[in-house]
Amino acid sequence: MYYYAFVTDITESERMKNELQKHRDNLEEMVRERTNEIIAANEKLQHEILVRKKAEEALLEQYNFLQRLIDSIPNPIFYKNTQGVYEGCNTAYEVFIGLPKEKIIGKKAHDIAPHNLADAYEEMDSRLLQNPGVQVYEGTVLYADGTRHDVVFNKATYTNTDGVLAGIIGVVLDITDCKRADMFLKIQAAGTRKEKPSEQNKDSCSGRNHSETFLQTISHGIRNNHKVD
């Protein structure tokens, strides 16, 4: 009787040991599988981070090139979003406004210009956003030195990569000296002959055709710069 009980205890103990070993083996297999899954997921994440980093570096390089390009242009250039908030400008615009880029970006016209002029700017911006395309008109601006100048605003809307209206880009062409010279020539001409209006005289100070082509080129660069990978 004692022998039977002893054998039974050993057999049960052996069975429990085998069951425990089986559970241990299963647990180790599960840990290995889960570890491999984590390693694979981590490698995928690291790859995605690397791809994203390269895309961001390429985007930054493109932005820097675009900024250097517009900074090399002597005419003031700016661009805003559809809410009228400045998103960028060139060095000439900083000089024109009398403020560094950091104090222009993120602001609206009323933050950096006299209210009467800002009202006029925003009114024309609103018209352009309602009828996307190109807008060219003469206006008056207040330079940083306090002098008022006659200018031609050449503005165009631009879209993001999805084709959605994203904002306005503009170039300011100072025609103060041109208008003075034009007026002087007209006064001289009036004393000698009757002046015949022509398309050349009508647009002699605006440089409209060249500005429209330039705006199309810059807006394309800004649209690409807004691309999110």
Strand content: 15-25%
The figure for the number of domains is 2
The run of helices and strands is: HEEHHHEEEHHH
Please name the CATH architecture of the largest domain: 2-Layer Sandwich
For this structure, the CATH topology of the largest domain is Beta-Lactamase
Mean pLDDT value: 82
Number of strands: 5
Number of discrete helical segments: 7
- Principal-axes geometry comes out as rod-shaped
Instruction: Summarize the biggest pleated sheet.
Output: 5 strands, antiparallel
Contiguous uncertain segments of 5+ residues: 197-201
Find the CATH superfamily of the largest domain: PAS domain
Biggest sheet strand order reads: 2-1-5-4-3
Q: For the terminal residues, how far apart are their CA atoms?
A: 80 Å
Mind telling me the CATH class of the largest domain?
Alpha Beta
Q: Level of helix content? A: 55-70%
Going by helix content, strand content and strand pairing, the class is: alpha+beta
Q: Please compute the radius of gyration using only Cα atoms.
A: 35 Å
Structure description:
The protein has 229 residues and is an alpha+beta fold. It folds into 2 domains: 1-72; 74-225, PAS domain (Beta-Lactamase). Helix content is 59%, strand content 17%. The protein has helices at 2-71, 91-97, 109-112, 115-130, 176-190, 199-202, 208-225, and strands at 77-81, 86-89, 134-142, 148-159, 165-174. Strands 2-1-5-4-3 form a 5-stranded antiparallel sheet, sandwiched between helices. β3 and β4 (148-159) form a beta hairpin. α1 runs antiparallel to α7 (208-225). The model is unreliable at 197-201 (pLDDT under 50).
